[in-house]
Amino acid sequence: MARLSIEDYDDQEGADVTASGEVRHDDPSYLVGVPDEFQRLWTPHRMVYIQHGQQPGEDDCPFCVAPTKSDEDALIVTRGEHAYALLNLFPYNSGHLLVVPYRHVALYDEATPEEIDEIARITQTAMRVIREVSKNDGFNIGINQGAVAGAGIAAHLHQHIVPRWAQDANFLPIIAKTKALPQLLGDVREAIANAWPAAETTSAAE
Description:
The protein is α+β, with helices and mostly antiparallel strands. Helix content is about 30%, strand content about 10%.
């Protein structure tokens, strides 16, 4: 299908052209293109993820850097003795948490019993807190081991906790590679951190 020229637009009822002969850009109805029923969600923040790839360098592991920052800056919701939990910067759903050992270890069978125990306990508490805060219907919980298995940061062990709702699935991620998220990360972090049992939270200063 041939694209409409400025002259074509000028011939159409209601079309508008600037004094310089350019089609106006302040109203999408005047722009060249074929209108359709789709709504566009612009997500330029994801270009950081797309352009820089998934695997960080050896000296800039985000899971090693995160605990050195404030909870707000690192999106941390709780800190334990051997592990901590933070929001995924690129979530599948609102409330998508990662449970991470402080130690830079890649594989589950390389973690110590103490690390495994605390990861499990944080996971259980996270499920209860997210259910209380978000009223979700279920969870996906899992660990991807190695880049070939889909681990976004393969060098540092991390477990995903993804809340799911009965009607949270649609075709948008499939046909548009876009996920609609209704809450900002900072708001989600604050809600989960505030609901976390105080007795199970270790202050960053301790």
